[in-house]
């Protein structure tokens, strides 16, 4: 997209550990991401893969027993970590970077009216008066497609449905005109027809406001619909990053390949679904080398050493055998679809 | 597919006729009387031996209610449930208890549905003890090990506790428990929606191979349309407590008739960027109506692009539009 301009957000070799009674849990390790203005990056992975922790680290939401123990997060070239970075981060988070969460039922304050919640960030970051904030909140509610916005201002979250609450969350997030929106599973708790409405809303806002979005999801269909680039996470590491079309047509990492083939298609052409045997590794005392090795059908001795990011058809793949057909079970999905 | 085609000689495992379920709710005020809310109305379908019926709908559509009413866990207000030729709608007491051996339930959340203080042996043997097949869990050990083997778990799993297992393994245990009494019908309520994609495929494949091996009938309740297409032979679509369309799997997905089915299918994102970007979504604005305050007419009328005055006044009946394909819509049947 806009590779020439300086990136908005750079995450560089980030590591987050959680202290637990059983030992140190390495939630994410060596996570590097770049987000440019106006693009949508999909962050994909299964539960425990570290996608939410990565987002929380960017938003400064990691609290004990968790801690950022390595790497850097930079906003427009300036670090958000360390004592000096923290002060800068407070002016950036909530204003330039905003976040929406998975569960609109629990992430709104049940004791505050919708209008007050939306206005809060504007009063803090933009110095709006109560009246100004209220007027702007009404505009925002209209912009996210809620009917009767003036009436909604004085309603409480329990009076709204799940889809409406997610719209309120989005209105809140865009209230200070952020440049980056981090959406952590924004539609997972919603029904499919409502999910389609919310995804359309995000795509429209992105176009209108020139917003960059990090979309965290486990649903490959959602990624295919609105993302430009994808980063696939497994066991706390990014195993593959690249352009969305390349990753879906020519996945380079055995895990990405397996994930795509174990997703049933709506066309229903497959007899048996391919499944990846085994389960993701525990993140306590991780083994050196590739974390996918125990489940990988083409693992070799070299995989006991952590693989570097290899270039493969324009993607970056952390695998010693990047691009090899790991699951030789007929043609891939993309080939079946005639692409 | 061919062995599941309609043949009048085969007795359906389950026959449901105009099933309706009401829930009681108390409106505001201390002295107010409870008022019935119709959560399910006029639902009819058959499930043949060895067949999977996918029951699809969004939250509040009544899919779980239908599953529970069929299993007689909740009482139905209207209609008939016929299991292997016997009307079980009003069975009570010992007869109802014995019936439960023939129809079992697999639940959604494998973390919440196993008792953390029971060994796997005790959990899987429990239905056998309750139904008097064995006297104690120890006496059932051989049977339990056999069941665990059937679902792909090692024999030593029997002496461990649920916390030692992952989500996918727990769901296998839930399936083993459901199969302990050799049921003919298994109602699986969102059995894979709590599982990760790569593990989900393992459980779906297991369910399919068990069906072939044991000639099981499934009612597969889900909201994930791609999984339903994969596992089902027939699919029923529910909306706000009514059955809007039922047909063979490929008919539903390739020739949907009801506007809601069309909207639902077009809203499912497919994991193919070029295809997904090019797809046109059929508009379905607004939200599911509140079933506590039902409007007359078709329940989908408020969101339907085809809705006319008639739709808002009279509820459309379920009409067979092609062999085995029924639709409840004034405009499409």
Please tag this protein with its features.
heterodimer; A: 339 residues; alpha/beta; eight-stranded mixed β-sheet; four-stranded antiparallel β-sheet; 11 helices; 31% helix; globular; disordered C terminus; B: 333 residues; Rossmann fold; 2 domains; 12 strands; disordered N terminus
Q: Any overview of this molecule?
A:
- Chain A has 339 residues and is of the alpha/beta class.
- Helix content of chain A is 31%, strand content 23%.
- Chain A is built from eleven helices and twelve strands.
- In chain A, the strands form two sheets. An eight-stranded mixed sheet of chain A has the order 6-7-8-3-9-10-12-11, with helices on both faces. Chain A has a four-stranded antiparallel sheet with strand order 2-1-4-5.
- In chain A, strand 9 (229-234) and strand 10 form a beta hairpin.
- The longest helix of chain A is centred in the middle third of the chain and has 18 residues, at 192-209.
- Chain A starts with 8 loop residues before the first strand and ends with a helix.
- Mean pLDDT of chain A is 87; it is low at 330-339.
- Chain B folds into two domains: 10-26 and 35-239, Rossmann fold, CATH 3.40.50; 258-333, no CATH class.
- In chain B, strands 6-7-8-3-9-10-12-11 form an eight-stranded mixed sheet, with helices on both faces. In chain B, strands 2-1-4-5 form a four-stranded antiparallel sheet, with helices on one face.
- The longest helix of chain B has 18 residues, at 197-214.
- The two termini of chain B are 25 Å apart.
- Chains A and B meet through helix 7, helix 8, helix 9 and helix 10 of A and helix 6, helix 7, helix 8, helix 9 and helix 10 of B.
What is the ordering of alpha helices and beta strands of chain A? EEEHEEHEHHHHEHEHEEHHEEH
Give the spatial strand order of the biggest sheet of chain A. 6-7-8-3-9-10-12-11
State the CATH topology of the largest domain in chain B.
Rossmann fold
How much of the polypeptide of chain B forms β-strand, as a percent range? Answer: 15-25%
In total, how many beta strands of chain B?
12
- Which CATH first-tier class of the largest domain in chain B would you pick? Alpha Beta
Helical run tally of chain A: 11
């Amino acid at each position: 997209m806009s590779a020439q301009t300086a990136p908005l957000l750079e995450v560089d070799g980030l590591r987050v550990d959680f202290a637990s009674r059983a030992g140190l849990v390495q939630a994410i390790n060596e996570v590097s991401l770049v987000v440019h203005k106006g693009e949508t990056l999909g962050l994909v992975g299964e539960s425990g893969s570290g996608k939410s922790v990565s987002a929380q680290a960017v938003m400064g939401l990691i609290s004990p027993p968790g801690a950022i123990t390595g790497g850097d997060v930079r906003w427009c070239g300036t670090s958000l970590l360390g004592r000096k970075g923290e002060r800068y981060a407070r002016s950036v988070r909530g204003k330039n970077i905003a976040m929406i969460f998975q569960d609109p039922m629990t992430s709104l304050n049940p004791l505050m009216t919708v209008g007050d919640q939306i206005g809060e960030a504007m009063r803090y970051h933009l110095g709006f008066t109560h009246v100004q904030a209220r007027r702007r909140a009404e505009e925002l509610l209209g912009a996210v497609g809620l009917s009767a916005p003036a009436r909604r201002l004085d309603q409480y979250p329990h009076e709204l449905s799940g889809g409406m609450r997610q719209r309120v969350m989005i209105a809140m997030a865009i209230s200070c005109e952020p440049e980056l929106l981090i959406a952590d599973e924004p539609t997972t708790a919603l029904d499919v027809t409502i999910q389609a409405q919310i995804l359309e809303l995000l795509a429209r806002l992105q176009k209108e406001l020139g917003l960059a979005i990090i979309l965290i999801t486990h649903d490959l269909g959602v990624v295919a619909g609105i993302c430009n680039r994808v980063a696939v996470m497994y066991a706390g590491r990014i195993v593959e990053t690249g352009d969305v079309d390349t990753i879906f047509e020519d996945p380079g990492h055995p895990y990405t390949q397996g994930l795509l083939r174990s997703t049933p298609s709506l066309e229903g052409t497959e007899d048996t679904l391919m499944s990846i045997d085994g389960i993701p590794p525990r993140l306590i005392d991780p083994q050196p080398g590739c974390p996918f090795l125990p489940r990988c059908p083409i693992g070799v001795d070299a995989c006991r050493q952590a693989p570097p990011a290899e270039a493969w058809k324009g993607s970056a793949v952390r695998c010693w055998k990047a691009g090899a057909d790991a699951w030789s079970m007929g043609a891939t999905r993309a080939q079946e679809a005639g692409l | 597919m061919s062995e599941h085609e309609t043949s009048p000689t085969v007795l359906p495992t389950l026959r449901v006729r105009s099933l309706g379920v009401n829930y009681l709710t108390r409106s505001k005020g201390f002295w107010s009387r409870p008022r019935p809310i119709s959560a399910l109305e006029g639902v009819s379908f058959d499930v043949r031996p060895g067949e999977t019926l996918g029951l699809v709908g969004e939250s509040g559509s009544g899919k779980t209610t239908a599953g529970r009413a069929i299993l007689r866990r909740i009482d139905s207000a209207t209609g008939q449930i016929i299991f292997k030729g016997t009307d079980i709608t009003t069975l009570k007491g010992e007869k109802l208890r014995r019936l439960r051996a023939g129809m079992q339930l697999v639940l959604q959340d494998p973390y919440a549905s196993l008792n953390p203080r029971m060994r796997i042996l005790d959990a899987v043997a429990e239905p056998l003890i309750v139904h008097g097949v064995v006297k104690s869990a120890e006496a059932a050990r051989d049977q339990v090990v056999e069941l665990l083997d059937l679902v792909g778990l090692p024999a030593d799993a029997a002496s461990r506790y649920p916390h030692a297992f992952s989500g996918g393994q727990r769901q296998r245990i839930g399936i083993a428990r459901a199969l302990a009494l050799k049921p003919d019908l298994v109602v699986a309520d969102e059995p894979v929606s709590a599982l990760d994609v790569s593990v989900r495929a393992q459980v779906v494949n297991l369910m399919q191979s068990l069906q072939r091996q044991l000639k099981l009938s499934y009612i597969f309740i889900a909201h994930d349309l791609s999984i339903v297409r994969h596992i089902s032979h027939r699919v029923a679509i529910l909306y706000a407590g009514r059955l809007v369309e039922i047909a063979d799997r490929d008919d539903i997905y390739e020739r949907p008739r009801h506007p809601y089915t069309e909207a639902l299918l077009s809203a499912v994102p497919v994991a193919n960027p070029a295809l997904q970007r090019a797809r046109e979504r059929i508009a379905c604005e607004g939200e599911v109506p509140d079933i506590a305050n039902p409007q007359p007419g078709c329940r989908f009328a408020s969101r339907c692009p085809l809705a006319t005055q008639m739709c808002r006044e009279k509820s459309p009946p379920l009409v067979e539009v092609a062999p085995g394909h029924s639709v409840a819509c004034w405009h499409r049947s």
